[in-house]
Specification:
Blueprint: H1 5-31, E1 32-33, E2 36-45, E3 48-56, H2 61-68, E4 73-83, E5 91-105, E6 110-115, E7 118-122, H3 125-130, E8 134-142, E9 152-160, H4 167-170, E10 182-188
Antiparallel strand pairs: 1-10, 2-3, 3-8, 4-5, 4-9, 5-6, 6-7, 9-10
Length: about 200
């Protein structure tokens, strides 16, 4: 065997490892853009499945500018609860979504956050954004949806929803425009004990 062959093989493996590393970095970016998911916690309660989450992010500058011009900014959290089935496609047993609407009130010079028919006003943008970063005790499934002998997992997502912006603003809007703010997470559920995965951190 040629003395150069080991070096050729080493170079080939090095290139493969570099490619794998690049793909892993791309995957991580795909599930977390600008948001650190500090906690995602699900537990079985008397009336079903309750979910709590907390995150860390800052409102992008383009979104802040649009807000001051009278544009409402929407954040959406979505959850799907699925049951594992070895014989067929996994069954979706429950789904839930929650929307937050952030607006600037020029007459009172306050920021307003609305969700589920409730409204709260804040003197600063930092306080308003802090109220958007999580929720506690959100019931995402009813008790009848969760069977004692089942194996379940959930898919969670949280994002700044650009699809609810005025139509003219959506034209040409993409990650490169500074509006990308989202996180996704898969979590296997243990219905006997609370389920808390490690925090997810966005890529630079």
């Amino acid at each position: 065997m040629s003395l150069f062959r080991p070096f050729v093989l080493l170079r080939s493996w090095s290139r493969r490892l570099t490619l794998v590393g690049a793909l892993l970095a791309l995957h991580a970016w795909a599930v977390a853009q600008g948001v650190t998911l500090q906690q995602l916690h699900a537990e079985r309660v008397e009336d079903g499945l309750a979910l709590s989450f907390s995150s860390r992010f800052e409102l992008p500058k383009p979104a802040e500018d649009a807000l001051l011009k009278g544009v409402a900014i929407y954040f959406v959290a979505e959850v799907q609860v699925l049951r594992n089935r070895w014989y067929w496609r996994d069954a979706r047993v429950a789904q839930a979504s929650r929307t937050w609407r952030l607006t600037w009130q020029p007459l009172t010079r306050q920021y307003r956050v609305s969700t589920g028919g409730l409204h709260q006003s804040f003197d600063s943008l930092g306080e308003a954004v802090a109220s958007l970063r999580g929720v506690s005790g959100w019931r995402v499934a009813d008790a009848k949806d969760i069977e004692d002998d089942g194996s379940y997992y959930l898919e969670f997502s949280y994002k700044l929803d650009t699809s609810q912006l005025p139509r003219p603003m959506q034209i040409g809007l993409g990650a490169g425009q500074g509006w990308a703010l989202s996180v996704e997470r898969y979590m296997q559920l243990n219905l006997d004990l609370p389920a808390t995965p490690p925090p997810n951190r966005p890529q630079p």
